[in-house]
Amino acid sequence: MTRISNDTLKPVPDGIEKPGYDRATVTVGIVHLGIGAFHRAHQAVFTDDVLAHDPSWGICGVSLRSPDTRDALAPQDGLYTLKIQDGGGETLRIIGSVVEMLVAPEGPKAVLARMADPATRIVSLTVTEKGYCHNPATGMLDENHPDVLHDLQNPAAPRSAVGFIVEALARRRAAGVAAFTLLSCDNLPSNGHVLKRVVSRFAELRDPGLAAFVADVASPSTMIDRIVPATTDADRAAIAAALGVDDAWPVVTEPFRQWIIEDHFPLGRPAWEEAGAVFVPEVSAFETMKLRLLNGSHSTLAYLGFLAGAETVADAMALPGMQPLIDGLMSEEVSPTLPPLAGFDLAAYRGALIQRFKNPALRHRTWQIAMDGSQKLPQRLLGTIRDRMRAGASYDRLVLGVAAWMSYARGLDEAGEAIDVRDPLAGRIAALTQGLDDPEQIVVAFLGITEVFADDLSRDDGFRAALTDGLSRLLSKGAAVELAAWQRPVR
Predict the structure, then answer these.
(1) Kind and range of the H or E element at 33?
(2) Long-range contacts made by residues 274-279, C-beta under 8 angstroms, separation at least 24?
(3) For the CA atoms of the chain, what is the radius of gyration?
(4) Which of 35, 265, 341, 370 has the fewest Cβ atoms within 10 angstroms?
(5) What is the DSSP string of 386-436?
(6) What angle do CA 46, 252, 293 make, to 5 degrees?
């Protein structure tokens, strides 16, 4: 079948929304590092909504590792389909905001040239937590990270997002061009501050003069929210049938979307507020709410659900005891730790999360959410546990989520079959836990990973005992039986 492209866009059925602007007039103003499914279902859609007002904000998407996205979308002129679905039905929309795609390992010179171009005023990122080359427990640059060491020695051919950013800033400084704004769109607390910190330290390691230039770079924090499961072959087939042309890599998502952004863009920005983005002076309170309520719950149900045999989030939510567990986690353990949110209906937000998790149309796999747990848990669960410990309050549900991660990350499911664990520390965890069956020994091995737990939790006797108790129940009874016990109002 013919592929979707600028030339084949016109015959697409009228009921499917198409770009409402002339793509020939769109020029690149944003370079986005990490052009995966989430970016294409979130920031690229907000940008698509406002390009008719100002076509100078087109996106150059950069893949830092694999050419797969470029190879899929380049023959389509960057066009792709957004499928929005819930239990009530679905809508299709063609997104055209991505007008250029580059693959960093194949052409670092082209990427750096685009980032150094004065027309580039924003460099945004969705590279996941591990892409920041930092210690997730401290938020500081990991100066021994292989990519950091490589990029310091090879500034013109970097591998990491941090290396590309600093070299591009060095070139702009040399050319007398103002620095672009850095815009992190990853699930990290104070993501803009984390990004600025690692970039500043990397620049300092290169050159004190460059570090002074980087010190003035704007790096607003953001809070993003939209569930984007992996695209399946069935999705591709159904979308092709509806379009009448093939789309090699559509994206699937839910109706809900949220983007809260600190408004600090010295070189300007798209009018994203016209697409529903909310600009605020300080995003941290909203960010903490989302990381702890949505992401913390998501990780907890993913690990417990996977261990209990649930393939998707909706399947996991249908397990006896899962909804009461997640309800209690959010309302009783997480919500009391949140900062004030004036005018925000927290109870309604929690209810909306439960309904989103139960959405049967989103085949969001628990295995997909379970990736990179060593990078995610410090932000999603461990910070909340620390706050509960300081308050002298219980954290039974939160610690069960951490115990479920430990069970999962060992690499064996409840039937003794191997799990394909995708995590930067997977090899180290496997070596530390190999041959261990005793829950207490397993917990001690995990707590030795101080870049996850830091010294305070690693040495806390009460936390270790709670983890050991939770892991003992999971290993002896299984996740499904443990979950079923949470159907009662009090455990």
Answers:
(1) strand 28-33
(2) 274/49, 274/50, 274/53, 275/45, 275/46, 275/47, 275/49, 275/50, 276/46, 276/49, 277/46
(3) 23
(4) 341
(5) HHHHHTT---HHHHHHHHHHHHHHTTB-TTSPBP----TTHHHHHHHHTT-
(6) 75
366 contacts 313 by C-beta, under 8 angstroms: yes
Name every residue whose Cβ is closer than 8 Å to that of residue 168 and which is 6 or more positions away in sequence.
Answer: 112, 115, 116, 123, 180
> Who contacts 431 (Cβ-Cβ below 8 Å, separation ≥6)?
none
What pLDDT was estimated at residue 71? 97
How far apart CA 50 and CA 269 sit, in angstroms, is 11
415 burial via Cβ count (<10 Å: 0-12, 13-18, 19+): exposed
- Go through the chain and tell me how many residues it has: 491
User: Is residue 235 a contact partner of residue 373, using CB atoms and an 8 Å limit?
Assistant: no
> DSSP letter at 157?
S
Asked if 322 and 483 count as a contact pair (C-beta separation under 8 A), the reply is yes
The angle, 0 to 180 degrees and rounded to 10, between the axes of the packed helices 108-116 and 161-175 is 50
Q: Which residue is it, tokens 């069935």? A: 234
Running DSSP on this structure, what letter comes out for residue 31?
Answer: E
Q: Is the dihedral of CA 421, 137, 260, 198 positive or negative?
A: negative
How far apart are the C-alpha atoms of 405 and 398, rounded to whole Å?
11
Evaluate whether 474 touches 307 at the Cβ level (below 8 Å). Answer: yes
Task: Give the integer Cα–Cα distance in Å for 489 and 485.
Answer: 10
Q: What is the pLDDT of residues 189-247, one digit of tens each?
A: 899 999 999 999 999 999 999 999 999 999 999 999 998 988 999 999 999 999 999 99
Strand partners, 261: 222, 279
pTM: 0.80
Spatial strand order of the sheet with 258-262 comes to 222-225, 258-262, 278-280
Q: Residues near 176 by Cβ (< 8 Å), separated by ≥ 6?
A: none
Residues 6+ apart with CB under 8 A from 159: 64, 104, 105, 147, 150, 151
Q: Residue 320: what are its φ and ψ, rounded to 5°?
A: -55, 125
Least confident segment among 190-199, 381-390, 401-410, 481-490: 481-490
Phi, psi of 102 (to 5 degrees): -130, 155
